[in-house]
Design goal:
The protein is an alpha+beta fold and 139 residues long. Helix content is 37%, strand content 24%. GO terms for molecular function: penicillin binding; peptidoglycan L,D-transpeptidase activity.
């Protein structure tokens, strides 16, 4: 899901995530870095732009831009039924519309209920910390 959020943010071109920062042989020779690579286009730029606008409108009109201070956020919330009479999982997925902070995210709170009310604040806390950390690293 996060790859799709990133693709919407990047005009339809995803970034293929990597989980390794680097690969080093036992002798200390660098074999490769964990730099992410661009994937193949999965959406037209026009479709990605429309989705971005709709997701930004959700933040402004539905979730409340004030709940995400200082963030130019595009997001979509959701709930996923899990069966067995259990409370649904809460989802909140999106990205920041800011080239200084190229962040896409997905938050899932198992059996959390409402996506925007439960997973949204978790996303805000994580994004605020990430932006603060990125600012600190630039200084």
């Amino acid at each position: 899901m996060m790859v799709y959020m990133g693709a919407i943010a990047r005009e339809g071109v995803p970034v293929i995530p990597t989980l390794l920062s680097k690969v080093v042989t036992p002798g200390g020779i660098l074999q490769g870095t964990g730099l992410s690579e661009d994937g193949s286009r999965i959406l037209s730029a026009n479709t990605a732009e429309k989705l971005s606008e709709l997701m930004h409108n959700d933040v402004v009109q539905t979730y409340g831009k004030g709940n995400f201070p200082g963030l130019d956020l595009c997001a979509k919330s959701g709930t996923a039924e899990v069966g067995g009479g259990n409370t649904p999982n809460a989802w909140f997925a999106g990205f920041l519309r800011n080239e200084e902070y190229p962040l896409a995210f997905v938050v899932v709170v198992e059996n959390g209920g409402s996506g925007s009310k439960v997973a949204g604040p978790v996303a805000n806390t994580a994004l605020q910390a990430a932006v603060k950390s990125m600012d600190k690293n630039e200084k």
